[in-house]
Amino acid sequence: AQQRTPIIAGNWKMNFDHLQAIAFVQKLAWSLKDVRHDYNDVEIAVFPPFTDLRSVQTLISADKLSLSLGAQDVSEFESGAYTGDVSAPMLKKLESAYVIVGHSERRAGYSESSELVGRKAAAAQTVGIVPLICVGETAEDLEEHGASAVPVQQLIKALAQLSADAEFIVAYEPVWAIGSGEPATPEQAENVAKALREVVREQKGDDVANATRILYGGSVTSQNIAGFMKQPNVDGALVGGASLKVDEFSRIAQYKK
Ligand code: PEP
Which residues form the active site (predicted)? Predict the structure, then answer.
């Protein structure tokens, strides 16, 4: 993981209106202020709901905060008659560096296929946004096929939709570990991350495989983050519940302590 910049990413899901988002980011920046110089090599990113992006963007740029910004979903289309959707060019205008695609809550709740997830990732790349592609197996998948089979297939199908040789991030998020308080072990996360890196190697070659950041997500806390970050193929974490508490998210970001 040495040559890859680790990233600690907070997925807020459908939490915080824009006023709460402003208060939260101000507190987070304050909490990271004294430690940030020790952490220049760790990227810290927040993924607020669409309605908060403009406020958070303004705060980050006005105060020159060293926080990255991302959105939680994007349309596969550039513009048009898609009521309720938000396009990649719109997110780009808001200086979103990243966008999550294929979160298991969207795969399960909105029947998103890996092909659609790949097309959304491609739409993001077209405008220079880095897609954060989520993959992961359910408890039933785990029992039937083992840990890596389903995430590997999901990633193969998503990557097949990417034409550009542009950056992407992969997040391995076992569905059974999300919001359950039962994280994977660091060894389980490492095994699947390693298998996913081999998929990237087969589809995109050595250079891309070595440069691509692969994150673990699922019940990450300040108590267990260090174990994941020690794994050679785990380059960061996607954090849900624990990203909504300033002190806890800040402690996670300081995992080296
Ligand atoms: C997530 O949904 O991306 C996630 C990792 O959630 P949690 O940390 O709450 O398990």
Answer: 103 (electrophile), 173 (proton acceptor)
pLDDT tens digits, 64-120: 888 999 999 999 999 999 999 999 999 999 999 999 999 999 999 999 999 999 999
Number of domains present in the structure of the chain: 1
Is position 229 within any domain? yes
Distance 173 CA to ligand 1 centre (A): 8
Q: Is the pTM of this model over 0.95?
A: yes
Residue 129 CA to ligand 1 center (angstroms) comes to 22
Q: Whose CA is nearest to atom 4 of ligand 1?
A: 240
**Per-residue three-class SS string for the chain:** CCCCCCEEEEECCCCCCHHHHHHHHHHHHHHHHCCHHHHCCCEEEEECCHHHHHHHHHHHHHCCCCCEEEECCCCCCCCCCCCCCCCHHHHHHCCCCEEEECCHHHHHHCCCCHHHHHHHHHHHHHCCCEEEEEECCCHHHHHHHCCCHHHHHHHHHHHCCCCCCCCCEEEECCHHHCCCCCCCCHHHHHHHHHHHHHHHHHHHCHHHHHHCCEEEECCCCCCCHHHHHCCCCCCEEEECHHHHCHHHHHHHHCCCC
Distance 81 CA to ligand 1 centre (A): 32
| ipTM value | 0.97
157 is an annotated ligand-binding site residue: no
User: Containing domain of residue 48, as a range?
Assistant: 7-253
Q: Ligand 1 atom closest to Cα of 104? A: 2
121 C-beta closer than 6 A to ligand 1? no
CATH no. for residue 197?
3.20.20.70
Q: Is 173 a catalytic residue?
A: yes
Is residue 1 domain-resident?
A: no
Domain contains 2: no
